[in-house]
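Supplementary Methods S3. Complex input for the iron/sulfur cluster-bound model.
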Amino acid sequence: MAERVTDIGPPHFDQFLPPVIKDNYGKWKYHEILEPGVLMHVSESGAKIFSVRGGSARLVTTDFVKELCDIADKFCDGYMRFTSRNNVEFLLTDQSKIAGVKDACKKIGVPIGATGHSLSNIVHTQGWVHCHTPAIDASGIVKSVMDDLYEYFGSHKLPAQVRIALACCLNMCGAVHCSDIAILGIHRTPPKVAHEKLRHLCEIPTTISACPTGAIRPHPDKNLKSVVINEERCMYCGNCYTMCPALPVFDAQKGGVALLVGGKVSNSKTPPMFSKLAVPYLPNNPPRWPEVTQAIRKILTKYAEGANKWERVGEWVERIGWEKFFEVCEIPFTFQHIDDYRWAYDTYRTSMHFKF
Amino acid sequence: MAERVTDIGPPHFDQFLPPVIKDNYGKWKYHEILEPGVLMHVSESGAKIFSVRGGSARLVTTDFVKELCDIADKFCDGYMRFTSRNNVEFLLTDQSKIAGVKDACKKIGVPIGATGHSLSNIVHTQGWVHCHTPAIDASGIVKSVMDDLYEYFGSHKLPAQVRIALACCLNMCGAVHCSDIAILGIHRTPPKVAHEKLRHLCEIPTTISACPTGAIRPHPDKNLKSVVINEERCMYCGNCYTMCPALPVFDAQKGGVALLVGGKVSNSKTPPMFSKLAVPYLPNNPPRWPEVTQAIRKILTKYAEGANKWERVGEWVERIGWEKFFEVCEIPFTFQHIDDYRWAYDTYRTSMHFKF
Amino acid sequence: MSDTPLLDKLETGPWPSFVKDLKRAAARKPAAKDLLRQLDRSYKDKITHWKHGGIVGVLGYGSGIIGRYSDLPDEFPGVEHFHTVRVNQPSGWFYTTKALRDLCDIWDRHGSSILNVHGSTGDMVFLGTTTDELEPCFAELTAKGWDLGGSGSAMRTPSCCLGKARCEYACYDTMDLCYQLTQEFQFDMHRPSFPYKYKIKCSGCPNDCVASVARADLSVIGVWKDDIRIDQAAVKAYAGGELKPRGGGSPYAKLDVKADVTDLCPTACMKYDGGKLTIDNKNCNHCMHCISLMPQALRIGTETGATLLQGSHAPILEGAQMSWVIVPFMPMEAPYDEIKELIAAIHEWWSENGKNRERVGELMLRLGMRSFFKAVGLEPPAQTVRTPRANPFFFWHAEDFEAEAAGRKYIKL
Amino acid sequence: MSDTPLLDKLETGPWPSFVKDLKRAAARKPAAKDLLRQLDRSYKDKITHWKHGGIVGVLGYGSGIIGRYSDLPDEFPGVEHFHTVRVNQPSGWFYTTKALRDLCDIWDRHGSSILNVHGSTGDMVFLGTTTDELEPCFAELTAKGWDLGGSGSAMRTPSCCLGKARCEYACYDTMDLCYQLTQEFQFDMHRPSFPYKYKIKCSGCPNDCVASVARADLSVIGVWKDDIRIDQAAVKAYAGGELKPRGGGSPYAKLDVKADVTDLCPTACMKYDGGKLTIDNKNCNHCMHCISLMPQALRIGTETGATLLQGSHAPILEGAQMSWVIVPFMPMEAPYDEIKELIAAIHEWWSENGKNRERVGELMLRLGMRSFFKAVGLEPPAQTVRTPRANPFFFWHAEDFEAEAAGRKYIKL
Ligand code: SRM
Ligand code: SRM
Ligand code: SRM
Ligand code: SRM
Ligand code: SF4
Ligand code: SF4
Ligand code: SF4
Ligand code: SF4
Ligand code: SF4
Ligand code: SF4
Ligand code: SF4
Ligand code: SF4
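Predicted complex, serialized as structure tokens:
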């Protein structure tokens, strides 16, 4: 047997860079967005690179990837990349080939866009396709929302860029917590303790200490070697389930979607912001989640109407005030909106700076 | 014996109001500040009331109060009041008598001012005059600082009003936590346990639970009926001493003054703000506390030079950024400045919005 | 040589000298003399010479008096006992000289002749007397119509700005409300039975001239709901320099209406084109900036009342808090039943749930806002938060699921 | 009737349909077919049908593979085992078609033919294979020069924006740093021995195109220290409308340099009088707004490097955190010794003090910043805080008193 190769890390990126990049590495001077989805970067040397950006479902097949390769082979000397939001980019130096790339993309159903003031691809997670803790599916909701908001992907109509992300449970693998609009799968009932399984599968001290609110206690019946959950304290985070498979936190009826809005990560004008709870609950309604798509469309539309130029969703909301945001979007204010976790105090209105 | 009178509350204010106020109660239309310390309020009816505002040490004698009464009797038909910052106000309707009031005030050493863009009186507390927990005196520091900054009391030179407050310990009876400049007496050493006294004077569970950081434990020697203090956890708040006289938290050498800046309570432009730690320690140096007066003068001067029109101290600091404030005032940044209490996270810089 | 060599250094300088003043009392009162001597000793030792307070008071009251004893009674016998008497001030700190002289005379007879005008909470504080003088002093006070303020775990002396008495910005009658609430809660003020202290402060408008947002468990701050009244002619006069900004209280001779007022409006809801000033009042957040700079051109609206905010206190134990909005708008007219009932409900909830020495604001944080709002029967207003929660850790109650079954929706679609 | 009646509804609509795509794999792969069938069942039941993951992996590695088993293996035998393989992406997600085809071929041979391009951390995620295929798959990957990414309590796959490869804003070579750090920490990536996961993300400038501030225990964000370079002629061209704002990426045809740029500068450090644009660079906070709107007129400075921020993570357990500044400026040149040593020191401190499943940011909060800065040998920079503490509860150590004795002053007088 040949020696096993380990710890080599990924290939060096150099071998994947088109010659124009190698030649102009670190020398780019400025860029233009020629049309939605098409970027031109110009080097100090005068060299140019064109990038055509296309949407992808992210959950794809090798067939699809090979189709992308076909396009890159035909127009881009075999060079392409993916973006930090799971879009694909075709890299080329011959401007005349842009049309060809766009046509070829159209044929395989890849929409062009995601630049500038567009709605880019939805960063998302596994959902029912691969994970054990989701409250919702990921890919199906993403498909439904992007179908509905398709017009914004391939245009620059919005007051600023808009970034939606989805996470199927509170672990937030989609890192939705700083998104313009966050789609979050939530459980709403405490875990049900499977005493028989627990004794075999779980370490009781670890399970107890996993709970951020201290809701888990050893079962009073010592022989059971299990735990009980103080349901009043549980906020359904599922962290105990991560540590102990005998504590499933699912409820097909009560689980669903929460929407958080107003987050961002860029430093442009305002510092990075967390997304804040906007809609505490929408039903989990496969295969097309109509309530979710409608609610997002409503928020996005109100934003597009109300925001100033260059204003991100969160900047718009902060400017008009959350109480006005709720009014404009017709979202009733509920107890769920009021923070009662660790740093709750900092969210309270300790001023007269509010509107009626 | 006559029946004991209790629970009558204070006299109704009506009997203390001058006729012009009774007649124009709720009908005031606008005011002017005729000169520093002199206000004119004009009613819808056209009636006017003039108020002459004078400074007071707050810690006074009946002799002094009677001197004030003499002035009010002579010029104000016996009407006067005190303000929420312990200044005295003489209320009159005959504008020609203002000069008389001012002269009379001068004679008894009462300075005129505290209106508009001035430095008003320093709200303060008992200090060594009457309290059991102070790290510093109150009245002496106030006198020293006001002597030093006297020019700002009777003028409108500053970019906005400036409010200084003093509290002689962390209980903060002066409510200094929202002041433009806060003078705070601090202890810097853990309480010394007087085991003999403790057993007689203090309830151990109450004492233990008084400590916000959980630094107090029952003494391992049960017979002692006392406690021990984990010195690493103690941040010298003195709360245990409030509950238990056997835990004095004084140290004549180490105690001293901290300055916090940038607080406000009005809603003008910006919402109310807490004061933040500027100078973590200045020596406790009676009778004139030169380091304290110099540090305050320095901060006030830098503010007066650097602030925009109408900008309160906190608004100025927030605009230029704390790192620049430290630079401008030549205050070295220390570990003490970095929050490590309950809501510390919200004070951290989670952005690229800083200056070099 | 002087008895008080260090303090003597505080006799000079332009600011009123408490040392000079107190020396007058010292000339006739041994207590005042020994106070200065002990204070001088503290200046030398850099340490207080007061013992931890003891429990003293007047008959039937649990508050109003702060006991105080010297830790050097042999050296300073005049201050062996040196208790303070908190005299509840009248609303707005208005006095006649007659009343003030009465008070001085009482204190000359029964105490050190030293006092604070006023204490931080608002009381007139008589500083320094002995235990046996307390009852006679109290008797004389009540005879003249005065009563004690609060201390300990009780309702504390409410205070207020002068409001409608002399301020054009007052959105409700602060002095009357303060008086009425003080009367309403006399029992709770004098018989400490709360988990901790409870303070009320009433400001007539968002300028908050009694700093209520920072130091009152209940902050009552005046506000209007309708439109700021504009006198366009006066706006012109400001723009032209005939009227001085801030009534003349600033170093700036002339107002630049755009740069100084509309550009600094925090909601950017004002417009000034050099001619007419307009305000989009629905977006105004009542910060008062524009009104303060142009008091003759702008006036508060006419649909007025108050915002209730709750929870502020000094940093012990959880860190300082400011009060936060619990009722965005409440009309504020005598007999003030609504606010009185609410305060009673708050006290009930707090007394039932509060731990010893837990301020109401700390309890709200510990139990959560839902518990509070439910208990006192208020709807949670969107104005209570500056921003909704960022974390996803929210609770669902059976009543939420029932409401959903009955049709509750979380957004109108 | 279709096997997947609910999923079929997702085949229509303009956005790429994963259902349509996956059906192609389903036609040749039983695993893919059963994945769709089981997913359809989840759509019906509104519940996941995956069991809690088990521990599987390749020899010698403790990470890179996520074990996954169906809870309905009898109904969907094709996904009884359905593990994922995390393939460490190349810096900036650049590929040649040759490389991509190789990867696809490997996955066609050893897995379901389904994958994510890419996972949220950055890996290319091969979705769904059986335990016995793991080792052969890994062998083929390494043979072609690929390796696995991280999982579990380990160093996770670092990622980066494309930086100098195609962006004029890059303040350092993100792709190179990402590669070098990935190589440096191979051992820690594949052998979980940290208290919890540790993520590094590298963005070339404050636009932060890999969202590092939100989701990296160590966020490396490019920045410059000197002046923004201005091309005044281009400024004129923007003002005149010859150049489009944001390179043409907005709905707005023409830039109003004052209203759109200088008035929105968060530090108000820019001036434009209709002619020349000036910047008070000492007060610029590098927000990038002006540069983004006028990329042909403004360029980042030339004294460049990176800011290090630490501590971000998702909400479990204490609530989400963003990273905060720990080193305002570090030059960032190969061989990157300074940052490598700092990371090693951080790991040491965290490994020694961190509780099981405690992220480094949570540990910093628990032990306090002094403990952290001391341990890793950094001075606390004023930039680490947005604002100093408001509470008065600060600690003093013996070393502070010693420093005072040696002359330390807390303000220069
Ligand atoms: C390709 C990509 C980096 C990569 O290595 O993959 C990228 C590329 C560029 N970004 Fe970005 N950004 C990319 C993700 C991001 C992210 C991360 C994310 O969305 O998760 C952010 C932070 C988002 C946030 O704040 O929530 C981001 C915030 C920005 C901004 C700030 C805009 C703002 O208003 O806040 C700019 C400036 C601008 O757009 O003018 C920017 C500017 C740019 C420029 C113009 C930089 C340049 O000169 O080349 C690039 C083209 C932008 C465009 O398409 O309009 N990039 N950019 C990423 C494309 C993602 C996608 O497919 O949609
Ligand atoms: C007399 C007094 C109320 C009382 O019942 O005693 C009072 C009276 C007035 N205040 Fe005040 N304020 C009084 C304490 C306060 C306080 C409380 C404090 O300092 O502890 C504040 C909040 C301070 C803070 O934010 O930290 C306060 C913040 C204001 C403001 C907001 C100014 C700002 O820039 O933030 C205004 C508006 C203005 O000055 O134009 C104001 C305006 C006024 C006006 C103009 C109201 C009016 O139309 O009559 C009064 C004369 C102001 C002047 O002297 O320039 N008053 N004012 C208090 C005088 C205190 C003193 O002797 O110095
Ligand atoms: C006399 C006075 C200071 C002054 O010189 O004006 C005062 C004096 C004392 N305060 Fe105070 N407080 C006084 C107003 C305040 C204020 C300001 C206010 O009420 O607006 C505050 C901040 C606001 C608040 O309530 O939070 C205040 C916050 C405290 C605290 C901390 C409470 C907290 O929740 O953080 C304590 C500690 C305690 O209660 O154990 C305290 C405790 C004390 C004690 C009783 C000392 C103790 O540990 O038991 C002091 C007695 C001193 C003495 O011997 O005379 N005092 N105290 C003020 C009352 C005079 C009056 O009735 O008018
Ligand atoms: C595959 C992936 C989602 C995706 O579809 O892209 C993923 C999937 C899982 N994540 Fe994640 N996380 C993934 C990126 C993230 C990110 C985003 C990032 O790295 O930028 C985050 C938020 C940032 C962060 O690290 O805080 C994230 C925060 C979590 C957490 C919460 C950690 C926290 O401190 O709050 C957990 C819970 C845990 O570790 O026990 C978690 C746990 C998990 C587990 C292992 C489930 C579990 O409870 O053990 C998921 C396995 C799903 C499966 O069966 O495939 N995952 N996870 C992402 C990794 C792909 C890759 O390697 O490229
Ligand atoms: S967000 Fe939750 S359910 Fe979704 S992939 Fe991550 S851990 Fe799994
Ligand atoms: S779901 Fe979360 S809150 Fe509920 S018991 Fe489990 S760990 Fe605790
Ligand atoms: S601040 Fe402290 S020392 Fe000063 S009066 Fe209040 S309790 Fe006493
Ligand atoms: S001084 Fe404060 S922190 Fe120190 S032991 Fe006493 S209560 Fe605890
Ligand atoms: S709070 Fe408002 S109403 Fe009261 S005195 Fe101050 S400015 Fe006037
Ligand atoms: S009160 Fe404040 S918010 Fe309202 S219009 Fe005036 S400046 Fe603007
Ligand atoms: S983070 Fe900055 S350097 Fe990197 S791609 Fe985005 S804009 Fe360019
Ligand atoms: S980068 Fe931001 S802060 Fe700096 S000059 Fe430009 S807009 Fe202003």
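The mean pLDDT of chain B is 97. The longest strand of chain B covers residues 28-35.
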